[in-house]
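cache lookup: miss for this entity combination. No prior model stored, computing from scratch. Input as submitted by user K.M.:
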Amino acid sequence: MNTTRKMSRKDLFWLGLLAFFAVIPLTPWFSHSSFAQHVMIQVLLYSSMAQAWNILGGYCGQTSFGHSVFFGIGAYGTGMAVVKFGLIPWPGILAGAVIAAMVAVAISYPCFKLKGHYFAIATFAIVEIFNRLFMVWYWVGGAIGLDYGFTEPGWKNFVWYQSKVGYFYGVLLLFVLVFGIVRWIEKHRFGFYLRAVREGQETAESLGVNSTRVKLSAMALSAFLAALCGAFFAQYNYRVDPPMVMSLDMSMKFVLITILGGLGTFYGPLLGAALLIPLQEYTRAYLGGIGGGVDLIIFGLLIVVVVVYQPRGIMGILDRIVNRIRRSEGGGK
Amino acid sequence: MALLEVRNLTMKFGSLVACNDVSFDVEKGSVVGLIGPNGAGKTTLFNCVSGFYKPTSGKLFFDGRDVTNLPAYEVARLGAVRTFQVVRPLKEMTVLDNVLVGAFLRGADNETAHSVAEECLSLCRLEDKSGNLAGGLPIGYKKRLEMARALATGPTLLMLDEAMAGLTSTEIKEALEIIKGLRERGITLLVVEHIMEAIMSVADKVVVLDGGEKIAEGTPRDIVEDERVIKAYLGAKFTERLKRTGEVTKNG
């Protein structure tokens, strides 16, 4: 009884949040400022990316620095469909995501034999390998990359030029998909197995959990969703080249946003992105003149402060505040 | 045919022979105790049976199937599930979630898993702790959580590795009650234990290891009178005491 009421309150919060995002484009703040639109789109994109990473890195406890590779494969999937084959982006988006999942499984099968930090280190190397590979692979544009020509704006081609509202609803769909999947996972067997593998691989095995399969499934799903985010990124920027997508910089964003927000928590990736992305975009806009990298300095400091103060990120800080309020309410009675 | 057959099991770590040519059977529905001094190879044997170690030589049959080279999760799926001597709670998960991980083995359905988990929690007297984080429990509860979690997988053979070590005498009595309850439910038990009074009162058969070798096998009464066992492990004084308290006669 109590738990069902609690769950429905959580559902209400989630639906309310989606409704909030859905009506944002109707507000004058949004419609009058292309910069505000850009920031909102970035927040939803990066929180989706972080959530995709969170499946493997947060819930399953396998730190991957290789996610920019899957992000990049997704971006190249749609880029190739549009630029090279003159198609609409959709088959490319799907193909990119499927290929990313397959590459992820192929890469991580040997890497998962490595435990703990060694897995993380191995994924570092993979980013460099793919970056160099795509730099010299002329069929996919090499170092120059792929530049979109003009195509008819709208949902069919998934490009817009005048207004960003189309992109906003596009990224909102992506956000609902990624977060919706994680919400489902959290309540079902797979979610329990993910956390069990994180908390103790041998214990999980002693209870009949095939930990290798759980990790590979988490990796495949995580890479698939990261690739969808990459496809959106290419459509949004009308181009893709290797340093833009397959870089350690990009990989770090997946990791750091999630850590800042709260590893293995549902709202952590959203909170991390909601704090970091506006900070990044506004400092870049207003402080960019005094030399690049100010956003990165603040970014770094923030991570240090949060991780030292509360390793469970913003979600941990919120939990602590909620608990304090509850306790003082209990004391007042 | 016995539920578990251990045949000529040998496990070497480099030049160290942890288990040497050990053979015994665990009959369906029985409680078998595995005893011996520290370093006798009890936990190594457990790790072999549960699939965590690949034995150097020898065979293991569970329910007629050769399980010698199966990975641990496969052995668990077949119905042979173990607990750990050094407790391994899934720390950042609640007690209920810990047990749910076990309960999901027999089906992905949430409702069934929840009802199985709750039944196991109450059987192991953990129901009032179900919302606590497992990492923060006192040791007695952690030991029972090990049991509840393994139990939730619906095992036919439950292997308890020193489930009673480090517990108070009241807690030991409780644990013994739980074990008796499990046997009544038809679960076969293989129990590694140091606490002799405890094991002697529940076991149908006792296997004694010393220095990696099996030195005796028999009913608890035979075991306490076995010269080699007394010399290697029990000690003469203890045997006298055990006979006097009459714990053995119940099963002997």
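stored under new cache key. Strands of chain A lie at 146-147, 239-240.
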